[in-house]
Amino acid sequence: MRLLHLDASPRANRSRSREVAQRFLAALPSSTSVTHADLWSMNLPTLEGDMIEGRYDLLHGNPVPEDVSNQWGAISAVAQSFLDHDSFLISTPMWNFGIPYRLKHFVDVVTQPGMTFRNDAAGNVEGLAAGKRALIVAASAMPFGQDAGLDILDFQSKYLEAWLGFIGVTQIDTVNVSPTFGAEDEVAKAMDTASEKAVTLARDW
Ligand SMILES: Cc1cc2nc3c(=O)[nH]c(=O)nc-3n(C[C@H](O)[C@H](O)[C@H](O)COP(=O)(O)O)c2cc1C
Question: Distance (Å, rounded) from C-alpha 105 to C-alpha 108?
Answer without folding.
Answer: 5
